[in-house]
Amino acid sequence: MSLMIAIESPRQDGVIRLLEMSDAYAESLYPAESNHMLDLSSLEKPEVTFWVARIEGDIVGCCALVGAGDGIAEIKRMFVDPAARGQSVARKLMETVEATAIEKRFDAIRLETGIYQPEAIGLYKKFGYIEIPAFGSYLPDPLSLFMEKRLNQA
């Protein structure tokens, strides 16, 4: 298996397919007011770094890191095709995101995920993310879990 992760445009068929799968999954678990997805045009903004994961050339995962302009970045649109799960795609995406955040000298990475996504929560906890109160423009939501990892700058 050849897993490659690279910064790419989100505006390509394979990524759009993943984003649609991610949207459908979130919509099956949560009401609209509890879904906080970035749309395609938001993923193309200058403050966003967007990665695509490929196995043997096929798009199998994606993730975005959004700079908030205050030393904090947020993980958005992390998703792995269910057919590619169990192949370390999410772990490699997280490693890539964190390395970039450190390189860009962010103080912390934050994220919002849903309480009905134990695999995602487990991944984030494994990477050292801890629960925090709602941040930024998020409102407290009993269906959302807000997490943060402080980055050690040398």
Would you kindly provide a written description of the structure presented here, covering whatever features stand out?
- This protein is an alpha+beta fold and 154 residues long.
- Helices cover 29% and strands 32% of the residues.
- The chain is built from four helices and seven strands, in the order βααβββαβαββ.
- The chain has helices spanning 13-29, 40-43, 89-103, 118-126; strands at 3-7, 48-55, 58-67, 72-80, 108-114, 130-132, 144-150.
- It has a seven-stranded mixed sheet with strand order 1-2-3-4-5-7-6, sandwiched between helices.
- The model has no long low-confidence stretch (mean pLDDT 95).
Outline type: globular
| Oligomer category | single chain
The tally of strands reads 7
Arrangement of strands in the largest sheet: 1-2-3-4-5-7-6
What's the overall average pLDDT, rounded? 95
The level of helicity is 25-40%
For the termini, the CA-CA separation is 35 Å
- Total number of helical segments? 4
SS-derived structural category: alpha+beta
Instruction: Write the H/E string, N to C.
Output: EHHEEEHEHEE
The unreliable regions are none
- Biggest sheet details: 7 strands, mixed
Write the layout of secondary structure elements.
Blueprint: E1 3-7, H1 13-29, H2 40-43, E2 48-55, E3 58-67, E4 72-80, H3 89-103, E5 108-114, H4 118-126, E6 130-132, E7 144-150
Parallel strand pairs: 4-5
Antiparallel strand pairs: 1-2, 2-3, 3-4, 5-7, 6-7
